[in-house]
Amino acid sequence: MCYSTQPNRRYLLSDAVCVLEEPEHLNWYRCPGEGWTKVFGFVVGIVHTNYVEYASSQFIHGLWTAPAIQVMSSAMIRAYCHKVIKLSGVLQTYAPEKECCENVHGVRQDFIQEGRRRALEAASLSGTNSASSELNEEIEGQVYFIGKILWAKGFELMLQLQEFYHECTGKYFAIDVYGGGPEEGEIKRAFHGRRNSWNGEESDSDSDLEDTFRDNLKKLKSIEVPKSLYEWRRKPIPANFCGPVDHSLLGKYKTFVNPSTSEVLCTTTFEALAMGKFVIIPVHESNKFFLQFPNCLSYRNKWEFAANLRWALTHEPEPLTPELAKEFTWEAATDRLIRSSAITRREAKERYNLGKAKLDERIAYFHRELGKHDALRRVLGGGPASNQVRYELERQGLDQGNSEKFAMSSFVKAIKSTFISNNHHSQAASLSGGSAA
Fold first, then answer.
1. How far apart are CA 201 and CA 135, in angstroms?
2. What is the per-residue pLDDT across 24-42, written as a single tens digit (0 to 9) for each?
3. Separation between Cα atoms, residue 317 and residue 253, nearest integer Å
4. Record's superkingdom (predicted)?
5. How many angstroms separate the CA atoms of 257 and 272, rounded?
6. pLDDT-derived band of residue 402, with 50, 70 and 90 as boundaries?
7. What distance in Å separates the CA atoms of residue 329 and residue 271, rounded to the nearest whole number?
8. Gap between the Cα atoms of 6 and 8, Å rounded
9. Most CB atoms within 10 A, among 140, 283, 290, 339?
10. CATH class (in words) of the domain with range 109-193+233-328
11. What is the helix (H) or strand (E) element at residue 146, kind and residue range?
12. 164-220 per-position pLDDT tens digit
């Protein structure tokens, strides 16, 4: 790769390829200069966060922020990307002629090595996938979940599945929950029920009665308002909340349950499959990539979930073949990235017929003009970071209103070099005159 020799240019020449992560968010505020598609010959964007969904979850602000983010994200991808890769079809449509869906992520070698260990262990045992005659759903250390402890991560669905499984079998299934989050307390109460009892010791003295009354009053004030009806349950669900931990350290489990449908592509599900575990997930657009693996037990309703969990508790996961294990590596992810980034001649012809190139250039120009003089940053509450354009112009010496093309021209360079040389000569003459005196 060749770098530009011009001063203050940190980009590669236009014959290079640039990969932008989250281009719909990265380009909201731009520094002075040409856009990505002008600096690089080919720009690929990878989108993996559903900002529209996050904005929609805000009760009041989401009514206007979600549509605004949707329009802004589409404009940024049109203006600054030749091709965009969405990790799943859950994400919005940005530019139909530019986008495709593909998982271009991989996992660490720790997870793949655990999957190989399980495969070797299964090969050394006979009757690995035979059904077990004994079944106890309440035995801990079989089923787990790892992720942020938020209602948005599917915990209400988890509770509904627990209740249905209890109706079918008469038992809840034990689950260990790893992770943390601001809603952990109320989610714990939803699984365990409220246990706020504060019976003080009986005493005949007035002082003890006053102390007991005061203590009970403090406890009464500390009681939080129930956030869900699940908190009033009488029979607790056997769920252990174990706190945050590295997923690669959870090799002892064989079944990962993740009912969430709010993800774009769940990394923990991918990691669990790489470790050779059963993964029980709903049939959803965000889980489409995982359905190809034999240990992925997908369900469409509660009946299928109960059947899949029953199967997972009485069987062993199928060992990963070398071909399937390779799908989890970053090498395979890179191959998928290269394959998905390609633009065929047919696609190029269709784009030309649509005539959207001029529209994309106009969007980039409008966005560039809109971001001049930091006005957009100040309006949107940029705070101390609102003067970045001014800082960049001053750093490049363009704050006097001169364009970059003029400042980098040979005429300006000749004038600057003349003044610099004259200044050096005058300084040398003054120094020699002072020494002679």
1. 44
2. 888 887 766 788 998 898 9
3. 11
4. Eukaryota
5. 10
6. low
7. 11
8. 7
9. 290
10. alpha beta
11. strand 143-146
12. 999 999 999 999 999 999 999 899 999 998 763 334 444 444 556 666 666 666 655
Q: Which two tokens stand for residue 362?
A: 């106009």
Write the single-letter amino acid at 102. Answer: E
The Cα 50–Cα 387 span in angstroms is 29
- CB contact set of 116 (below 8 Å; sequence gap of 6+): 276, 320, 325
Kindly report, residue by residue over 266-276, the tens digit of the pLDDT.
Answer: 999 999 999 99
Helices and strands of the chain, counted as H and E runs: 18, 10
Q: Is the dihedral of CA 113, 115, 116, 118 positive or negative?
A: positive
Nearest by Cα to 259 from 133, 143, 414: 143
pTM of the model: 0.76
Q: With H, G, I as helix, E, B as strand and everything else as coil, classify residue 286.
A: helix
Tell me which H or E stretch contains 124.
helix 109-124
Domain residue ranges in the chain: 17-104+337-370, 109-193+233-328, 199-229
**Chain CA centroid to CA 40, Å:** 26
- HSE on the CB side for 362, CA within 13 Å? 5
d(CA 32, CA 153) in angstroms, rounded, equals 39
Name the phi and psi angles at 256, rounded to 5: -110, 125
What is the distance between the alpha carbons of residues 370 and 22, in angstroms, rounded to a whole number?
21
Phi-psi map region of 287: left, alpha, beta (phi>0 left; psi -120 to 50 alpha): alpha
Q: Which candidate, 269, 262, 263, 302, places its Cα nearest to that of 146? A: 269
Q: DSSP assignment of 1-66, as one string?
A: --B--STT--SBPTTSEEEEESHHHHTSS--SS--HHHHSSEEEEEE---HHHHHHTSTTTHHHHH
Which of left, alpha, beta for 310 (phi over 0: left; psi -120 to 50: alpha)? alpha
